[in-house]
Amino acid sequence: MKKRTGILLGLDILLLCVFAEAMVEKYNTKAVFNTMQESKKIALTFDDGPNAEYTEMLLKGLEERGVPATFFLLGKEVEKYPDIVELIHQKGHLIGTHSYEHVNLKNLSDEAAIEQVDKTNAAIHNIIGEYPEFIRPPFGSWKSNLDYETNMIEVLWDIDPLDWKTNNAGVVTKRVVDKAKEDDIILMHDASESSVEAALEIVDELKEEGYIFVTVDEIIFE
Ligand SMILES: [Zn+2]
């Protein structure tokens, strides 16, 4: 068995060499090695949706770029716009929970906080047939005992460009691109045209720098 693995591994390496050689021939050595070195993961996340005006615009742009993202949805909005939730799911993005009506979960009793999560998860499950595993608590405010009580995994963020405070897409893009590093989670909102524009510009610029966009599970379970 061991020997077989060895042969297979040998074959893999051989194939990889053949592939690398072909790439070197096709492009040039430097470009190939740059790409290999700079394959670093990064994740875009969008809170407060689904948004009737802007989520579909964002989905279209992400699809054109072949990039997945993570959406932390509000239960109340999920119930209003099930078609958009379905579309997010169909396009291969990851859906998480952001509470039912954007409340500070720390200020609630455990019972009320759990209800915020459960109601949202049930609404999402009704539409996509899956329960979310991840939660982005509003304001990043969460009680650790709720991990256990709700079975949710808390996802915070590394970069917050405060996209909701400005309508200048260029400013938001710069704030993110200047700070970005491997395995970062970027917090945004698909709630305005400038945020959508910025998100797509961020994708274009960071892809140029060799980043690969992934959903948050691929960073958290690394
Ligand atoms: Zn929020």
- Give the biggest beta sheet: 5 strands, parallel
Helix content: 40-55%
Count of DSSP strands: 7
* Straight-line distance between termini: 28 Å
**Residue windows where pLDDT falls under 50 for at least 5 positions:** 1-9, 24-34
- The number of distinct structural domains comes to 2
- What is the typical, i.e. mean, pLDDT? 88
Bound molecules: zinc ion
**What's the CATH architecture name of the largest domain?**
Alpha-Beta Barrel
- Structural class of the helix and strand makeup? alpha/beta
**Radius of gyration, Cα only, in angstroms?**
20 Å
Give the SSE string: HHEHEHHEHEHEHEHEH
CATH topology of the largest domain: TIM Barrel
Task: Explain how this protein is built.
The chain is of the alpha/beta class. It folds into 2 domains: 2-36; 39-220, Glycoside hydrolase/deacetylase (TIM Barrel, Alpha-Beta Barrel). The protein has 10 helices and 7 strands. The strands form 2 sheets. Strands 1, 2, 3, 6 and 7 form a 5-stranded parallel beta sheet that branches. It has a two-stranded parallel ribbon with strand order 4-5. Helix 1 crosses helix 2 and helix 3 (55-65) runs parallel beside helix 9. The longest helix is centred in the N-terminal third of the chain and has 25 residues, at 2-26. The protein is globular. The model is unreliable at 1-9 and 24-34 (pLDDT under 50). Zinc ion is lined by residues 47-48, 98, 102, 138.
